Amino acid sequence: MWLEHIENFETTWTPYSNFQLGIVGFGGSINNFIRLYGEGGVIGILPDSNFSSNDSEFGGYGLFGFEFFFKEAHNYFIELGGVGTGAQANKVLTQPIYSNGFMVNVGYRYVLK
Hints:
Number of strands: 7
Structural class: mainly beta
Strand content: over 45%
């Protein structure tokens, strides 16, 4: 993850880490080609000391997703959802919130069986 902010009168991007732990529930499939699912859980953030005085932040997330299978164990996916943590970059001039709001994930997935 990256936080864009102003440091020394210049725009900079500072990296930080996050981790998620959640539960997935499948809602069905259409012709063994499209599978629908939902996911929800907790998110932990390890902010960088350049923009936050906190060692960690916690919150929750939820999403729904679609998997498009082109072979049995291969699929493309899109996930839409939201995340809320209350994390605030308290060392930055305007103290913006981060890791909050709408999220979109897309990618390729190989399913191990």
